[in-house]
Design goal:
The protein has about 375 residues and is an alpha/beta fold. It is about 30% helix and about 30% strand. Helix 3 links the parallel strand 3 and strand 4. It comes from Flavobacterium fluvii.
C-alpha cells in the first residue's frame, strides 16, 4: 500500500479544506508514492516519536499537531523541530498532520471531547463561514433524475441532517445553435423553446471540481448552462468548538472533578464559581480563548478549553465558568480516534498507536 492510499483515507476523515487558513496540514515530509511499511499515530511528531516509528518499522507518522508550522530557512538541527525533520528524512519516514482539519469536523476533536464527558444534543459552537456554494443548472425533464442523482453522489445536496436536498422548478428554456452546434433538441439555426427543469443544489466548496465533473458527465446537452454562487450561510456541520448537555446537572466543584477524571487532567485552572449547577457545556480542544464570547452567547454554563491567559479569565463576566484543563489533555483522545478510524478502513495492515507521551507540561 502506498502512502497516498493512506492519505486518501485520512482526507476522508479530515478533509484538508476544513483546516483553518493559518494551519499547515497534510503531508509535511516524504514521498506519497512510497510504499508504506506501517503507520504510527501520535499527538506530536517529536524526535522520540520518529525513533519509535523506526523501531516499530512504520515509515508513516500521522500526527495531530504539525511539526512544521511556520517556515524554516535553515535545517541544522538546532531545535526540536529541525531535529525531528532531519531524523525523519534520513530514515525515509513520512509525516502527515491533521490538526484543524480534524478540529473543524463534526466527528472530530471536539466531538471526541464531548463524548469523553458524555455530553448529549451536541452541535458546532462556531459554524464555519464562506464554505457553502450553490450550483444552478438547467436540463430537460428526461435528464433531471439522472443528473440530480449524479450530483448527490458527488457530494451535493447535504444540508444539516438531510441529504439529497435540491430545489426543482419548471420553466421555458430558449436557444439557437450556430453552424458549429450539434443540438440535442432542434436543428442548427432553429430557435428552440423547450420546457426545462431548473435544478439547484448546495455543496461544500472543496467539492466543486467533483461536482462539475459529475455535471458535465451526466448532462444531456452539448453546452451545459450552469451558475455557481458563494453563499453567506454558515455550515452548521463544520466549525470550531462544540456545545452539548450533561444528562444530569452537576454542582460546580463536582463537575470540575468529573472533568479532571474523564480527561485525565493533573490540574484545572478556572474562573470564579457562580453558585449554580452546570448543565450546558461548551468545549474547544486546544487554545480556545477566542471562543469565550461564543460560549457565553450559546448559553453555556461552563466552557472547557486550554491556554487561557490571566486576563482572559475576567472575560467570564460572571456568566459562566471558564476552565483551562490543559492543551494536551483537551485533545487527549484524538490519536485514539485516528487509530480506530484507520483500522476500520485499512484491514490487515499495521496501524500503531504511539506510546510516547509528548505533553510538554508537567505538574508537581
Amino acid at each position: 500500500m502506498k502512502i497516498k492510499e493512506i492519505i486518501s483515507e485520512l482526507e476522508e476523515m479530515a478533509p484538508l479544506a476544513y483546516a483553518e487558513d493559518f494551519d499547515n496540514v497534510g503531508l509535511l515530509v516524504g514521498d506519497q508514492n512510497s510504499e508504506t511499511t506501517g503507520v504510527l499515530v501520535c499527538h506530536d511528531a517529536l524526535e522520540s516519536v520518529i525513533d519509535e516509528a523506526i523501531a516499530k518499522k512504520c515509515n508513516l507518522v500521522v500526527c495531530f499537531h504539525p511539526i512544521l508550522f511556520s517556515g524554516l530557512k535553515k535545517i541544522t538541527g538546532k531545535n526540536y523541530v529541525e531535529r525531528s525533520i532531519i531524523k525523519a528524512i534520513k530514515n525515509d519516514v513520512a509525516i502527515y498532520a491533521v490538526h484543524t482539519a480534524l478540529d473543524n469536523h463534526q466527528e472530530g476533536v471536539n466531538k471526541i471531547f464531548c463524548d469523553a464527558l458524555g455530553l448529549t444534543n451536541t452541535k458546532i459552537l462556531i459554524p464555519k463561514s464562506n464554505f457553502i456554494r450553490k450550483l444552478v443548472t438547467y436540463t430537460i425533464l428526461e435528464n433531471a433524475e439522472k443528473l440530480r442523482n449524479a450530483l448527490f453522489d458527488a457530494g451535493a445536496g447535504n444540508i444539516g441532517n438531510y441529504e439529497n436536498c435540491s430545489f426543482n422548478s419548471k420553466g421555458i428554456g430558449t436557444y439557437m445553435g450556430n453552424e458549429h452546434s450539434n443540438p440535442e433538441i432542434g436543428e442548427r439555426f432553429e430557435f428552440v423553446e423547450n420546457e426545462e427543469i431548473k435544478i439547484e443544489v448546495t455543496f461544500e466548496k472543496h467539492l466543486e471540481n467533483k461536482i462539475l465533473k459529475a455535471l458535465f458527465k451526466n448532462h444531456i446537452y452539448e453546452e451545459v448552462a450552469y451558475e455557481i454562487y458563494d453563499l453567506q450561510n454558515k455550515n452548521q456541520n463544520i466549525g470550531l468548538g462544540m456545545i452539548g448537555e450533561l444528562t444530569v446537572p452537576m454542582e460546580e466543584t463536582s463537575f470540575l472533578n468529573f472533568v479532571k477524571d474523564k480527561m485525565q487532567a493533573d490540574g484545572i485552572r478556572h474562573s470564579s464559581f457562580l453558585g449554580k449547577s452546570i448543565k450546558k457545556v461548551a468545549v474547544l480542544g486546544g487554545s480556545g480563548s477566542f471562543a469565550i464570547k461564543n460560549a457565553i452567547q450559546a448559553g453555556a454554563d461552563a466552557f472547557l478549553t486550554a491556554d487561557l491567559k490571566y486576563h482572559q479569565f475576567y472575560e467570564a463576566e460572571n456568566q459562566l465558568i471558564l476552565a483551562d484543563i490543559g492543551h494536551f489533555e483537551s485533545e487527549r483522545y484524538t490519536k485514539n480516534y485516528i487509530v480506530d478510524f484507520l483500522r476500520k478502513k485499512i484491514l490487515n495492515f499495521a496501524i500503531v498507536l504511539s506510546e510516547e507521551n509528548t505533553n510538554p507540561v508537567k505538574y508537581l
